[in-house]
Amino acid sequence: MDDPPRRTLSAAQADALLRWSDGADSNRPQPVPDPTCLYGLIGEVAREGSDRTETNPIAIAGNFIAYLSCAIGRMPYLAVGNTSHHARLFFLHVGRSGRGRKGDAVSLVTRIDEAVRAQRPHLAPQIHRGGLSTREGLATLIHDGYRVGQQEVPAIADKRLWVVESEFANVLQQSRRGGNTLSAALRDCWDGVDLKPATKTNRVHATEPHVCLSAAISPVELLALVQRRDLLNGFVNRFLMIWGERTRIEAFPRRAPQARVEGLATAVMDILEFTRPRAENSRETALMTMTNEARRRYAQLYHAELNQDFGSALVDSVLERRAPMLLRLAMVFALTDRQWLIEARHIEAAMAWINYATYSVGFVLAGGKGSPSQHQVEWAAERISAFLASKGSASRRDLVVDCFGRHQPAAVVDAAIAHLIDTAPATVQVEVQARSRSGPGRPATVYRFVRPREPN
Predict the structure, then answer these.
(1) Which of 68, 199, 206, 353 might form a disulfide with 195, Cβ 3.0–4.6 angstroms?
(2) Are 195 and 135 in contact, with CB atoms under 8 Å apart?
(3) Distance of alpha carbon 63 from its chain centroid, rounded?
């Protein structure tokens, strides 16, 4: 992508900041994720953490994906051309102060990690909670060994590091300091390349880092602190940016039972035992591959949605890495199924996240252009409900073609489906009908009408 003119990018950023600062954007309909985002174990954790709490399930899911991508480590990789992608992700949760419940979105993930650590500590990654300031400080957390005077500091063998940065504004502020190389170091971490000393006086190295981030920030802080340089140099677009605010008000939110936490931890440990090298501290690798069906679906997306421009210099700069992010998400989803093979269903779940990230970025940075209004969503939801009540069930294509005659954009249809699923009691349930391995096409998602129970 060519660099946008400075005035265009800065003006778009200033306009978005003004809208959030004066409250003009406070009542717009918020992005709604596709239920497909909550795939498998990720969905179980998200639903457990959001049940009778104020925490948004999509925010819990994003943090859990970041944690899991870190704990999985560098053994699995996917070759794309001459580039090897590991399941390594940076997650950025955006929400207004007091409403985002950004700290709560990490709480259940932390409890799951504690349960893993108590039973099989070798499976749990190192965790660093905030306070990143320099490249050297980051490298020191996973260093290869160094000397202090006459003393040798032994190397840290396990290079897995999950950074929980609840105040991402701190990272952006550090980036604004002249000569600070933290953002460059984090770019290297996302790429998986060695962290080398930035100066001759500092000799701290970290080879083969596997660093993943869970970060949080408010929209005003993001727009006020991010620099044009970080928008264009690939720093910000390495983050999967997701909008998430509280879904309800609960004076006494429910605490997940410890037995349930330990059950989820057991599922995590099964995944990590599957993905860890057989020999301790070995450099064993495992090549992940894609089914022909998954390859075809990814190629379709790559030539369409994954390289779509939105006519906004600001939005386009942040969404530049949708394709590699989709592949890394698909890797995580396949590994949660304890398999090295990426199937079409993993691509679809990953694409649901990319779509939601796209809606989120547009909502935060461009005033939500293209985001359906609440009136549109409710109108479409009523029409879908009536259509399903008469038909019993339908695919997404059936809804687009037969229910709306192709006259409604995908964003409206998806938001309306999600609205029907999220509304209590739900009037629509989702079924994924796997196709035979020999048959053509990808797994079909079917939406089925749920008749409300008659009152006693």
Answers:
(1) 206
(2) yes
(3) 7
* Of the candidates 370, 371, 372, 386, the residue with the CA atom closest to the CA atom of residue 420: 386
Q: Are strands 126-129 and 210-217 parallel, antiparallel or unpaired?
A: unpaired
> Where do the domains of the chain lie, and which CATH numbers do they carry?
6-365 (3.40.50), 374-449 (1.10.10)
- Taken in order 379, 382, 387, 388, the sign of the CA dihedral is positive
> Cβ(242)–Cβ(93) under 8 Å?
yes
pLDDT tens digits for range 222-266: 988 888 778 878 899 999 999 999 988 999 999 999 999 999 999
Q: Strands (DSSP E) along 158-303, which ranges? A: 160-165, 210-217, 239-243, 286-290
pLDDT digits (tens, 9 = 90+) for 162-218: 999 998 998 988 877 777 789 999 999 999 999 987 555 567 899 999 999 999 999
Rounded to whole angstroms, the Cα distance separating 323 from 312 reads 19
How do beta strands 393-395 and 341-342 pair? unpaired
How far is Cα 281 from Cα 335, in angstroms, rounded to an integer?
A: 21
**CA dist list (Å): 141 to 146, 179, 259:** 12, 21, 33
Which run of H or of E encompasses 440?
Answer: none
3-state helix, strand, coil in the chain (%, to 5): 50, 15, 35
Query: How confident is the model over 313-328, as pLDDT tens digits?
Result: 888 899 999 999 999 9
Looking up tokens 């994906």 gives: 65
